[in-house]
Hints:
With about 210 residues, the protein is α+β, with helices and mostly antiparallel strands.
Amino acid sequence: MEEQEKEVTGIGAAPREKEGKTQEALPPASALAQTEIEFKKLAEQLEEKIKEAAANYDKFLRACADFENYKKRVEKEKGELVSFSNERLIRELLPVADNMERAIDHIEDEADLAAVKEGIKLVLDNLMAVLKKFGVEEVSAMGEKFDPTKHEAVSQDEAAECNPGTVIKEFHKCYYLNGRLLRPAMVVISKPPEAAPEMEEMPGGED
Length: 207
C-alpha cells in the first residue's frame, strides 16, 4: 500500500510542478502597472510632439505668407524708387525753367542783345550750379590732346599752330557724374597741313 501511495504521490507531483512553472511565466502585476505607466507617458509625449509639429507648421505657413507680402512690398518700393529717383533733381531744375520763361517774357522785338545774352548766361549758371550740387562736373576739352576715353572726334581740321591730335573745336563738353564719365566731349582735332603742290615749269621759258 505504501508503495502504491508513493507511486500515486509521484504521479500527482508532476502536474503541480508544471502548474507552478506556468504561474511563474506570467509577469507580476507590478510589471504590468509599470508598463502601462510608461505607455501612457509615451502616448502623452507623442501627443505633445503632434501639437508641436502642428504649431511649427502653422508658423511655417505664416512665415511663407509674410515673406510673400515682403517681396510684394519690396517690389512696389523698388518701382516707386525707380519712378521717383530723379524727383529731387527735377525739383531743383524747376526754378531754372521759371527763370528761362521770365527771360523769354522780357525779350522784346528790339531788345538789347547784350542784355538778352547776359540773362541767358545767368540761367545757364543757375543750371550748372544745380547740376554740380548733384555731382555733375563739366570739363572742357579745348586745347587738350585727344583722348578716346573721354573725347569723341567727329572730324579733323588743319591747324599749323597746334600739335597734331589737339582739340581745336568743341561741339559739346565732357561731363562726369561723381567721377564717372557721363558723356564724352564731341570735338574736332587738328592735323598737320598738307604740303602745297609744287608749281610745274611753264613751257617756253629760257632759251
